[in-house]
Amino acid sequence: MNLLAPVARLGRASFAGLALVGRITLFAIAVVSRFFRPPFYPREFLIAVLQIGWFSLPVVGLTALFTGGALALQIYAGGSRFNAEAVVPSIVAIGMARELGPVLGGLMVAARVASSIAAEIGTMKVTEQVDALVTLSTDPLRYLAVPRVLAALLTVPVLVAVGDSIGIMGGWAVGVQRLGFNSATYLQNTADFLEAWDVTSGLIKGAAFGFIVALMGCYHGLHSGRGAQGVGQATKWAVVSASVLIFAANYLLTELFFTS
After folding, report:
1. Taking the domains of the chain in order of start, what are their residue ranges?
2. What average pLDDT does range 119-141 have in this prediction?
3. What letters, b where the CB count within 10 A reaches 16 and e where it falls short, cover 119-137?
4. 56: burial class by Cβ within 10 Å (0-12, 13-18, 19+)?
């Protein structure tokens, strides 16, 4: 019996993981199914747009700026081994648009927004405000989850686009000021090698990551335990699950977009 105990624990953990995946999938379906059916709450949606989009812009912009600069330095250092320093502008632009812009932007939004949503909704649940919504015949999913998920779905691609631009600008600043590139040549190489699909694929990734971030925040907030400890656990797992799902979704979308 003792020999089977590890197998039993592994089986229980596997079933618990599959059950969690099923609950999150059903939650996502329930939220999406309410996108286009009234009643709508435009005030909650606009507040969510402000909190998720506008207030996340400084952290996303700073992250992209320093990432673009560091990427230019790394590519120059690596390319110099093969006399390929001229690839710096094109690789910085492609890397920011395809991967680093969407992924780092999504992670920064996850750290800031998923935790905030989970803490806010979890506190509402602990203080029985969610129960009060049900008492007033207001659907908690429609009032709390739909505006936030829809706002993240629409605003995170905009944040990604801004982050891409700032990141490329950071690479340009380092390339011109630190690495000795000619400004006009750097910008011309960036424009020549960056294709529309590179940018579009990153924006699609941003929309997917925004959906994941808000969905995880709402799910863990609405399923938080009682008390301060329950809210803290919900906040932690919202950020962890959103970050892991962002990396998983990034791989799947990259496989879909760029594997012939």
Report:
1. 1-33, 41-258
2. 87
3. bbbbbbbbeeebeebeeee
4. buried
Q: What is the C-alpha separation between 186 and 172, in angstroms, rounded?
A: 7
Which tokens go with 143? 């009032």
Written as six digits, the tokens of 258 are: 């760029």
The single residue listed with the structure tokens 């390319």 is 79
Quick one: average pLDDT of 147-158?
Answer: 94
Instruction: Tell me if 203 sits within 8 A of 157, measured CB to CB.
Output: yes
Asked if 120 and 253 touch (Cβ cutoff 8 Å), the reply is: no
Judge whether residue 217 has pLDDT over 80: yes
Asked if residue 136 has pLDDT above 80, the reply is yes
* Type of residue numbered 137: S
What span, in angstroms and rounded, lies between the C-alpha atoms of 237 and 27? 16
pLDDT digits (tens, 9 = 90+) for 74-111: 888 887 787 777 888 888 999 999 999 999 999 999 99
Query: With contact defined as beta carbons under 8 Å apart, do 210 and 106 qualify?
Result: yes
- Residue 207, pLDDT above cutoff 90: yes
Q: What is the DSSP code (8-state) at residue 80? A: G
